[in-house]
Please model this.
Amino acid sequence: MKLGKLSAVIFQNVRRNRKNFIFSTVGITIGVSVFSFFVALTVGIREEVLNRIYPVDLIEVEPASVSIAGARSNVERIGFNPEGVAVLQGIEGVARVYPKLRSHFQATYRMGGQLFGSQGVTFEAYFDGLDDGLLRAELEKSAGRKSGKSMKDRLKARYGRQHRCYDAEDCTPGEECFEGLCRPIEYGSLFRDHGEFIPCKGEEMCADGYGCVTGRCLKTCGTDGPCGPGEECMAAGCRVDGECGSGKCEGGRCSRTVCLPVCSAGCPPGTECIPETCKADEDCRDGACLDGRCALAGTCSHVTCVQNHEEAELMANPDLRRGELPGLCEDGTPMTPGAACPPARCPASTYCSVQSYFRPGYLWKDRRGEGRCEEPIPVVLNPIVLELFNMVLKSTLEKTQLGTMDTLLGYGGSVTFGHSFYKDTVKDRTPVEKRLVVVGYSNKALEAGVTMPMSFVERANARYKGKGATRQFDSIILQLAGAEYLPDVLSRLEQFNIQLSRRSAEAEKFRTVLLVAIAIFFIMASIILAIAAINITHTFLMVIYERKREIGILRAIGATKMDIRLLFLGESLLIGAAGGAAGNGIAFGLSKAADFLANRYIGEFPFQPDTFFHFRPEWVAASIAFALFFSLLGAFFPANRAAAMDPARTLTLA
Model:
């Protein structure tokens, strides 16, 4: 029998036996709806909640700890240092390794502006540092979808409607001056180490790989590693050995070479080129004046500034944080004695980072003093910060909630290193205030603080806890080449006495629970579908008895056994397809009802998704495949029985 005629007979039989068809479909529909509903709920929780908190392809590890006489102690076979990172990089299935370093000293945040008002708030600071390679690609990809890509920006570029500028001060907030035109800031590209000015009196205050040269911590080069973009490895000029840190002053030059930004590459914001000639050390800004030539001539140095405004004024007018440049007017001319002119300030994208305070004992309310112009430290927030913050805004502060994390891009605050409400100031260390700017968000960032490029944390730890505080990483993040490598990687880590961090261990538990849940729902649906298959078998046996004369006639006019078998199996396929479609439709409707009830009767909580269900195409297809399989299974034996009937005997008995 041809396929067209066979299909016509199948549809005709279904129309004639609608009651049996509907009755057989009920069990399949219930099984599919149960399976699809709970699988969509499980996948939705994993995709919409769990994966937003814990990245899928990353695991964080730390040294395994054991209990010795009631105390916890770390036992390591490999060190959490560069050598240990190299060992972990060699494990099969590990694509990349990123060390992580936490702050080991006291600090406080100071936040104000539109979020906290002109008075601002101060609270304890927690932050960590990550290799910017882990986050930069993600941040730049996210920023690329928001910066300079809109139709408005393209029209501006095409028809010349962009605002012309001389520096960033000429542009509106959220824009930067680039090649004489204002353009949206690509915040993601700002997550990098742009350097900072750290005064020092000895090597102990500088991080590993840095030396105390010319009175500040500078990255050493040569045997210690290459320099960054725009820097060159050179020997600083000197008079005495003390200016060269652990090196010596030989022939007017330090024996220890350091990385210095050169003027030919363009000086970063907040820095200026040190002149070639000089009459006194003050003319060189940094380093000594040696025989009429600056020791660091041709390199960029942070501009000296002074902050004359108290905290209340700075909170009311954040632009005052740019401080003042001593002896210089706003138009760049020298300030003459007795004449009044607006003072020059640090560039618009920088601030005056105070290094020496006028009143050190009153740091909690008076941060005036002398310092250097610096760019703010770029930081990344975890999305959970916005969730928790919105809950506080709504329930406690009774303010409007923030819409998305993009709202916080460019928001600035400050962190004071070395200051705390609970601990005394670090001995022999002067607290210093640093500005922060939010440049992105990632679920890889610290949940209860901020994440910044690790080099900033390394330098800060050494500055307040000594050089040894930078020699060991607190944890290491492993990026897997694929999820299938996870069991083997965990097995290798156990050999090194390395365990999952609390965060990764919790994620692994949740994922295991979800896998078990999917298995349970699969078993439940299979049982229901198996019962439905038995029901289909019973129904088709009754149909065969009722239609035995029809079957005999079909055989008598030339229908083969295979035709009869395909006739019943085709009807079962229609039952499975109809049951699968109806079951998924019911599951989808129930999911919408569940979302409505949850939004109406369940209070808000962090990472509350728009929906708790995720109907993935592959799972919907799998549910329909299960329905077809059990329908065919139920009709298989009745179809064979019908095909085996003797047409002569059937017509005779009929």
In short: Confidence is low (pLDDT under 50) at residues 145-149. The two ends are 24 Å apart (CA to CA). The chain is about 40% helix and 20% strand.
